[in-house]
Amino acid sequence: MTPQNQFEPVLPPALKPGDTLGIVAPASPFDRESFDAGRRVLESMDFNLVIPEPIFDQDGYLAGSDQQRADLLNQLFADPDIDGIICARGGYGAMRLLPLLDADAIARHPKVFVGFSDITVLLDFLVQRCRMVAFHGPTVTTLGKADPSARDRFRLALSSPEPLSIAAASSRVIQSGIAEGRFFCGNLTLFCHLTGTPFQPDFSGGILLIEDRGEAPYRIDRMLTQMRMAGSFDGLAGLALGAFSDCGSVDAIHRIVADRLSGLDLPILAGFEVGHETVNMTLPVGLPVQLDTYSGTLTFAGSAVQQW
């Protein structure tokens, strides 16, 4: 794999009022009431929405067939009338699309793409296979209940050329230090399940932020142990922790991380408002960032989007 510090990421064009967002459902079916609430939030931000009818399909625990979901994602990236893409929800199923996505075609049409949780695998695909910046942030179904600060951050991250930064809300230093590298962000379970596949992430030289929901502490331990044994953390420059919702006590998670990553010379900072909570701050994946445990911050180098 090409080390992540050997290429410059392509920035998607910034969104502006009146731009058109296409909505996809790459994973599970979604609750219509939550979807409508999020749709209204996007419309209040002066975005036009394209809502393809197939996203409402249901094939068991999937929002339609794999080919249908992949085709729609490929089509929305290729469509010149679509300025950005946001996922309806996560759930499960995005991994199944990876072999069906056209990385070369997608790379020719960079545009804002937003999601989190199961969408982690698509964010990583866009960064590593298409070499573009993608955004870890709310889905349509979580925007309706999102804290106003998270909504404001969502719009800012996708539209402003100003460099972004985020401070840990409840900073907890596990290992001190300062490190720089390309930013990776997402769900620990999904990163773990990519291990050993052709789509295994290459975090070498990077800063990684992980979050999760509903995983018992021993399963967090098991995933970190597997990833370390597989060499996933070899060359990692720094680690940040987001929310671990319904995963037991925060202190227990911190102790597990400290134990499972002991001996690695890298800063580790917990307490970022990223993950399965009402405050889920939108962050640009694939962009160079500095992790500083002394100031408790992640500071991105340069714009995450191209200026209008």
Extended strand count: 14
β content, as a range?
15-25%
Helical content, roughly? Answer: 25-40%
- The CATH class assignment of the largest domain is Alpha Beta
Name the overall outline: globular
Low-confidence stretches: 1-5
SS-based structural class?
A: alpha/beta
Order of strands across the main sheet: 6-14-13-8-9-10-11-7
Over the alpha carbons, how many angstroms does the gyration radius reach?
18 Å
**So, the CATH homologous superfamily of the largest domain?**
Murein tetrapeptidase LD-carboxypeptidase, N-terminal domain
Question: What is the domain total for the residues?
Answer: 2
Describe the structure.
- This protein is α/β, with parallel strands linked by helices and 308 residues long.
- The protein has two domains: 4-159, Murein tetrapeptidase LD-carboxypeptidase, N-terminal domain (Rossmann fold, 3-Layer(aba) Sandwich), CATH 3.40.50.10740; 165-300, LD-carboxypeptidase A C-terminal domain-like (Glucose Oxidase, domain 1).
- The protein has nine helices and 14 strands.
- The strands form two sheets. An eight-stranded mixed β-sheet has the order 6-14-13-8-9-10-11-7. A six-stranded mixed β-sheet has the order 2-1-3-4-5-12, with helices on both faces.
- The longest helix is centred in the first third of the chain and has 13 residues, at 32-44.
- The protein is globular.
- The two termini are 33 Å apart.
